[in-house]
Amino acid sequence: MRRLAPALTLGAAVLVAVTGCGAQSTASLGNVKLAAAEAVQQSAQRAGEVTSYSADLSLDATDGKQGGGKIQGSVLYQSKPQLATDVTLDTITFDGQNVPGGVRAILTGDTVYVKSELLKRFAGSGKPWLKASLKDLDAKGQEGVTDLLDRAQQFDLAGTVKLLTASKDVKAVGTETVGGVETTHYSGTFPVDAAAQVIDPARREQLQQELSRVKNVKFDLWADAESLPRKVTLSGSEQGAVFNLAAAFKGFNEPVTITAPPADQVGDLPKNPGVAGDGN
């Protein structure tokens, strides 16, 4: 499973790249013509101004040694009044085996709530939800939960689109409708090393580590008339493993509701949750 992780940790998106006819080097933003690279920069800037959104995610990955995997789900995100994320993964399949019931994780502040049949069995809990707070965990447990927090936050819209600004070959390939909204479709590649230099330094090392064997990542971006990214896809391969990850974004700056589960449905996560995954 670990070899399939790089696609997930990148954060938002890749389906099979779509090439368009009538490729052009510029695109329209209102009455202003923008070069493709400039348009991607503008989209990254607009994404950085978004404080809440929802997204539909899908991942397909294959590995010659471990088989294939598929993940489908959705994300709710808000950065104000405090950072909060609600991730629902309805479908999780690895090497032909399904994770029963999928996984849902709600992160508010430094507390994570997880709903997972597998984790529930491991913890021996009678509650549907388990929670953990960083201050209550031992060192190894803190490391595991911090990793989960970091991975969930890597789904953030701004960080994902910023990766695309490292591209030197992006071009506009036409116009398409995404989610009922007219968009301009851009396509290109970015070098992983260059992309690592434009993101948050706190995430730089992790990105380079996760994609250490990937030289270039192919991307497609669909941006609307306001330069908001309506869809992003990323794809790549490493030593026989191939991933295609896609995210469709909507509900920009609209109110979202992300709340902790009712207290009577929540049990405590074991202080060392990392042990659960060691044998699987």
Q: What is the helix fraction of residues, given as a range?
A: 10-25%
- Note the run of SSEs as H and E: HEEHEEEEEEHEHHEEHHEEEEH
Low-pLDDT runs of 5+ residues are: 1-33, 273-280
Largest sheet: 13 strands, mixed
Beta-strand content bin:
35-45%
Judged by helices, strands and strand pairing, the structural class is alpha+beta
The average pLDDT value, as a whole number, equals: 75
What this model shows, in words?
By secondary structure, the chain is of the alpha+beta class. It has one domain (20-272): outer membrane lipoprotein receptor (LolB), chain A. It is built from eight helices and 15 strands. It has helices spanning 5-10, 36-48, 117-123, 139-153, 157-164, 192-196, 201-210, 274-278; strands at 26-29, 32-35, 52-63, 67-78, 84-94, 97-98, 103-108, 111-115, 129-133, 171-178, 181-191, 216-223, 229-238, 241-250, 266-268. Strands 3, 4, 5, 6, 7, 8, 9, 10, 11, 12, 13, 14 and 15 form a 13-stranded mixed beta sheet that branches. A hairpin with a 2-residue loop joins β7 and β8 (111-115). The chain is globular. Mean pLDDT is 75; it is low at 1-33 and 273-280.
List the SSEs and their pairings.
Blueprint: H1 5-10, E1 26-29, E2 32-35, H2 36-48, E3 52-63, E4 67-78, E5 84-94, E6 97-98, E7 103-108, E8 111-115, H3 117-123, E9 129-133, H4 139-153, H5 157-164, E10 171-178, E11 181-191, H6 192-196, H7 201-210, E12 216-223, E13 229-238, E14 241-250, E15 266-268, H8 274-278
Parallel strand pairs: 9-15
Antiparallel strand pairs: 1-2, 3-4, 3-14, 4-5, 5-6, 5-7, 7-8, 8-9, 10-11, 11-12, 12-13, 13-14
